[in-house]
Write a structure and sequence with these properties.
Shape: globular
Number of helices: 14
Bound molecules: 2-aminohexanedioic acid
Length: 514
């Protein structure tokens, strides 16, 4: 794949010799002082970029800049901060194709899905611009005569955003676009597998900031580094909020450290998403939703469909149709038009998928189709697989784990209540769906006695959420909500103001103190 997209975006200039900068605040642009690493394209394993890890000592300097930038940004009126985000959105529109190419290169997404990810960024810009004029609190009646109460929402402080390889742009954008209108400088620590995406976003934002002299450059900052840097960020008092997306293991470590200093974390971690297919379901509709949710993005979305909970009376027919449909899925280079399943991110991911399939077999599973590596007609050096369908018992331990690869476990149920129990019996709680034509089943699924996930859909798949809703989930998914709805409140602090406009000093609760 051509690297001209990097030139067009200006990313090529963000390096010294062959080494890209790892510390970019706008004021400081520096090489990392830690060990060297390279990021590879999952398409063919080619080396795309070389970096030195940014170190915790370098974070200290960046922290000081972020704190200074916060002092300025918090006093700039929110609609002006919205103007910054509006312009960033315009640049993302202008360079949509180039940005999508960087995603395809680093994350291996097929072009339509990479474009869709940039569209999420653009959409959340529009959302955040509107929100920049709606950062409102309540006014509350006071119990005391001559008093008034109100809430205000103020900027919170520098926010750290730790992201995963699979949505290298959208997840940053959800946090950063809202955080910026809320008045918070954003430090991104991207996945080490997708650093060029981070630099592309940085470049787009800095192009805009260059034309807005009142905005401090450091409000959009990036540090590229390894686990040590992540730990230093989590431990740093600079960040009242650390937003982290990725594995449950990573999230647990971040949450513990952040909680240790009584900071806040916003977590979007593992999913083990299920779809219930009722015996009343429109199966043609369900089939299309299942294939996109389970095999799309090569099974590497946190919202990927991993468990298909099917009524026992329709399971055989449905599995047969699914296997046929899976058979016609074109697996191959994500930049070749018509391919629908790109590569896994790397060899480790491939090995984990194979191990999960072996375990599933040992635990009584039957592989209906897929799972094998594809080596013909695909670029050498990439790890391409056929998406797998496995029939297995709902309580086989492997079914309760998230394997970040295209494996869909097919489970069966007899009663709808049992289906909901199966849906809820895993430790993760991100996304869920039901396909049914029964109003009672649909409503029960969305009711307090229904799905325990952050997302519960009816007659659409588990993945591909719109940005307007609050995104995230319960249990081991971490409880955070990002993107739409009232997620902006995460990035602000609330003050309650009580104002006495009378001439007396009555105490609340009727207390007399004289
Ligand atoms: C993720 O995989 O971390 O709902 C995010 C979806 C996308 C976002 C996924 N809008 O599938």
């Amino acid at each position: 794949m051509s690297l001209t997209c990097l030139e067009t975006l200006g990313v090529n200039t963000l390096k010294q010799g062959d080494t890209f900068y790892s510390v970019l605040t706008g004021n400081t642009v520096a090489l990392g002082e830690g060990s060297t690493f390279s990021a590879h394209s999952p398409i063919d394993g080619a080396t795309l970029s070389t970096f030195n890890n940014a170190t915790p000592a370098q974070l200290d300097k960046v922290n000081a800049e972020l704190k200074d930038a916060f002092k300025v940004l918090r006093t700039i009126p929110a609609p002006r901060r919205g103007e910054l985000v509006r312009r960033i959105g315009d640049e993302a529109r202008k360079y949509k194709n180039e940005l999508a190419q960087v995603i395809s290169l680093e994350a291996g997404k097929i072009v339509p899905e990479a474009l869709g990810e940039v569209q999420e960024w653009i959409d959340v810009c529009d959302f955040a611009v509107g929100q920049s004029r709606m950062l409102h609190g309540l006014s509350i009646v006071s119990e005391r005569p001559g008093h008034r109460m109100m809430e205000q929402w103020h900027p919170l402080g520098p926010v750290a955003v730790i992201t995963a390889f699979n949505f290298p742009m959208a997840v940053w954008a959800w946090n950063a676009m809202l955080g910026l209108v809320c008045g918070d400088p954003i430090l991104l620590k991207p996945s080490e597998k997708a650093p060029l995406c981070a630099l592309a976003m940085y470049q787009i934002a800095q192009n805009v900031i260059a034309d807005m002299p009142d905005i401090p450059k450091a409000v959009v900052s990036v540090m590229i580094g390894d686990r040590d840097l992540g730990e230093a960020i989590a431990a740093s008092e600079t960040f009242p909020l650390v937003s982290a997306t990725g594995s449950t293991v990573m999230g647990r470590a971040v949450a513990k450290t952040v909680a240790g200093r009584l900071g806040r974390s916003l977590l979007e971690l593992g999913g083990n998403n299920a779809m219930i297919v009722s015996d009343t379901a429109d199966l043609d509709l369900a089939l299309r939703a299942i294939v996109f949710s389970a095999a799309g993005t090569a099974g590497q979305r946190c919202t990927t469909l991993r468990r298909l909970i099917t009524h026992e009376s329709i399971v055989d027919g449905l599995v047969e149709r699914l296997a046929k449909s899976y058979g016609s899925l074109r697996v191959g280079s994500p930049i070749v038009e018509g391919n629908l399943v790109g590569p896994l991110i790397d060899e480790g991911s491939f090995n984990r998928m194979q191990a999960a399939l072996d375990t599933a077999k040992k635990q009584g599973g039957e592989i209906v189709c897929g799972g094998e590596r594809v080596t013909e007609g695909v670029p050498a050096g990439g790890f391409y697989v056929r998406p797998a369908i496995v029939r297995i018992a709902h309580d086989a331990p492997i079914v309760h784990e998230e394997t970040f690869a295209p494996i869909m476990y097919v489970l069966t149920y007899k009663t709808f209540e049992e289906a909901i129990e199966i849906q809820n019996e895993v430790p993760q709680g991100l996304s869920s769906a039901v396909f049914t034509e029964s109003m009672r089943e649909a409503e029960l699924f969305m009711s307090p006695a229904g799905s325990d996930c952050g997302i519960a859909n009816v007659n659409i798949g588990t993945s591909g959420a719109e940005i307007g809703g609050a995104f995230g989930g319960e249990k081991e998914t971490g409880g955070g909500r990002e993107s739409g709805s009232d997620a902006w409140r995460n990035y602000m602090r609330r003050t309650t103001n009580t104002v006495n406009y009378g001439g007396d000093l009555p105490l609340a609760q009727g207390i007399v103190f004289e």
